[in-house]
């Protein structure tokens, strides 16, 4: 479906956004001299950019294009992936942020080496590399290509994906994580403004009448909980599968956790993580509901991934169209730059640097920049293939449902269970992924018809069992507790902090707000 091409004013707005991003990239490049600058922003990040960057980097992979399309097809239950991020980010703030920062690791897989051994580190690093490029970056580029080709019909999917990837790779390679994070702040603000504009104008088309919306929407489209036999998101899958996917994404995925690793200190890391959780709560209202409203104000669309571009073309006047298109590009760029930088960090710090410990800091930085370019090309080539799936959101979540449950089990039990040793980690990772491969083959053959969230829950349960049995049969023998084990005192704030700056208090407030939102739409 092609829409009216942007006017000169719209293009000027988009160009202004691009200039701001380039200027940030140029500025941060002047402070990027070595690997720690490139991959961790010199460990200078404060809570505000961390929170906005976490939000912006996540938002483009599964929202706007993917979530609006899913909401158009089967309703607001898709926002379960969004509000459930809040309690998971509480776990990140209180459990895993102190583990990572106290260990001073440069990558998440490096934590696995400290907790278990180098085999676990390399296995998880390789898995994350593949998922970051094939799932995260390629999925995001596909979403961007869908938008660009809708408004610029002369572009094909590959050309559009390559254009977006090249732009993100340029400023990421120059300024590293600092460029990623500070452009994310700009991108998050533009994204929120654009999403609110679309939502308000969409509601205005139905006279801000909730009853009119409810009458036009199909059954269950305005409920967070769908029946057990729902082909879209059964309530049991929401309870046992969505938390597993969210835990992997927010607590162990390098491209998200990298911002936390670059924090100035633990207090800033925790505050930034909880800010991201707070920003996730309005997503239901400003990014999911427009997909349901589109049923009332748009002609029927065969491709749900076209819903958000169609809303932009239908609702927005000249100038505002350019702003929201800039918001879409911002959302996409914030994810692409994050995944490219994290993939380069994994390759450089987990594989090349251990093999060549004599490499200088500048050499590490230049190898990382070269890796960003290579991964950019791989993701751009993969992106058009996603069109063969039934939707962007389905592609992303199905792929992760088979990949991540064993990883979630290893991190979760490994953080709390001191008896678990290297054998528990490797047996769970290998055994869990062998089982994943069998189920995936059966799914391709039509023998398994379980929803992917139920598959994720099933694989997670099986991985927990493998981990527990291996620990019982071959426990860790050392008398001293392992490095990287969580203890309750790690939740305490810095000495002398007032109670209103206590992350435990912030966590309780965030959990209460989440419960209120869920009860309002249950």
Write a short abstract of this structure.
By secondary structure, the chain is mainly α.
Descriptive account of the structure:
The protein is mainly alpha-helical. It has a single domain, classed as Sodium/glucose cotransporter (Up-down Bundle). 74% of the residues lie in helices and 0% in strands. Helix 6 runs antiparallel to helix 23 (503-521). The two termini are 35 Å apart. The mean pLDDT is 84.
Enter the CATH topology name: Sodium/glucose cotransporter
- Superfamily (CATH H level) name: Sodium/glucose cotransporter
Tell me the β content. under 5%
The number of strands is 0
What's the number of helices? 23
Total domain modules: 1
pLDDT below 50 for ≥5 consecutive residues: which ranges?
none
Largest sheet: none
Provide the helix percentage.
over 70%
- Integer-rounded radius of gyration: 22 Å
> What is the succession of H and E elements?
HHHHHHHHHHHHHHHHHHHHHHH
Mean pLDDT: 84
Derived from helix and strand composition plus strand pairing, the structural class reads mainly alpha
What global shape is seen? globular
Distance between the ends? 35 Å
Second-tier CATH architecture: Up-down Bundle
CATH class, please?
Mainly Alpha
